[in-house]
Amino acid sequence: MVLMFLVFSCGPKQTGEAIPNHPAFKDPAVLEISEKLQDKPDARLYYQRGLLLHRMGEDTLALNDFKKAAKMDSTRGEYFSAVGDLMFEHKDINGSLPYLQRAVTLNPTDPTAHLKIAKLFIYLKDYTKAFAEINTVLRQNTMTPEGYFLKGLIYKDLKDTARAISSFQTAQQVDPEYKDPIIQLGLLYSARKDPQALKYFDNAFRIDSSDVFPLYARGMFYQEQENYEQAKAEFTRCIMHDANYADAFFGIGWVLLQQDSLEKARKHFDIVTRLEPTSATAYYNRGLCNELMGNRAEAVSDYRQALTFNEEYDAARQAIARLGSK
User: Fold this and answer.
1) Is 163 in the same domain as 193?
2) pLDDT tens digits, 200-216
3) Residue 243 falls within a domain, yes or no?
């Protein structure tokens, strides 16, 4: 009997999961957690590893860990919230809602979960339910900037510009470093052709200089005013900060096309086709440059390429017909 006990006690050690054979699991922080999970599965560790994987851009792996955490410990709302949020980011709307609702059930006062559900309802354009979730948060804490930002998005979509501006301004007042409402204010004032837009775009770029969209937006503001030289200057400034920002190259190309600088315009559209090989508008505009320069065969080729990436591109189809090609 003693011998039998010894035989069993010397058997293989019971372990948790094996470390997956994926490059992400060679990261030191991820590997450290994975080694702990080898010894014993733990919901908290799965959640922590999921957060690391998400920050690394490995969302499929992160989602798998978040689901394991939620399955192992169904009492923690943040686990369900993490699953729902990640599924929503990847447009799995039907899949995300049950997880987010479960998160709110487990923690009715969790503002993060309520705001995530609000975002989901905004995506679905169910604004009544979205407002209900937002107001739940704002009743708990009036100093929640994201709540006002989301209200602004709803009003903007409803074409209630005055309320949208008011909501975005409130979000900015609550958190002056919150970039998203500042960009939205710039876009709304830009649509009004109001120079105040430039101030907002400048402020947004000051907050986060890694995001060059505000510089591009400044260029578009000047382009809409037909101040083409200033528009080109802003687009060039954008490219100096991000040499792969295709929209800025396109913007310069479009301005040059208006100025009849056809060869220069074509070169810029050519750059866009390299940066974004499936951009139908880039091929169409390069084709237009070729057509105006008398390069008929090249123009037809570009127009056909545009139709390859957008079968409903009527302007490209009409251009081909105009040049007598099928």
Assistant:
1) yes
2) 999 999 999 999 999 99
3) yes
The predicted structure's pLDDT at residue 294: 95
The residues of the chain scoring below 50 in pLDDT are 1-14
AA letter at 312: E
304 occurs within a structural domain? yes
> Domain total for the chain?
2
Annotate the chain with three-state secondary structure: CHHHHHHHHCCCCCCCCCCCCCHHHHCHHHHHHHHHHHHCCCHHHHHHHHHHHHHCCCHHHHHHHHHHHHHHCCCCHHHHHHHHHHHHHCCCHHHHHHHHHHHHHHCCCCHHHHHHHHHHHHHCCCHHHHHHHHHHHHHHCCCCHHHHHHHHHHHHHCCCHHHHHHHHHHHHHHCCCCHHHHHHHHHHHHHCCCCHHHHHHHHHHHHCCCCCHHHHHHHHHHHHCCCHHHHHHHHHHHHHHCCCCHHHHHHHHHHHHHCCCHHHHHHHHHHHHHHCCCCHHHHHHHHHHHHHCCCHHHHHHHHHHHHHHCCCCHHHHHHHHHCCCC
| Whether residues 300 and 235 fall in one domain | yes
* φ, ψ (nearest 5 deg) of residue 234: -70, -40
The set of residues, in sequence order, having a beta carbon less than 8 Å from that of 136 and lying 6+ positions away, is 114
- Residue 269 is part of which domain span? 226-326
Percent of the chain with pLDDT over 90: 84
CATH code of the domain covering residue 148: 1.25.40.10
Give the pLDDT score at 16.
63
Closest CA to 170 of 156, 151, 187, 188: 151
Question: In Å, how far are 16, 162, 232, 252 from 246, measured between CA atoms?
Answer: 47, 33, 14, 10
At 105-122, the pLDDT tens digits run 998 988 988 998 999 899
Mean residue pLDDT of the chain comes to: 92
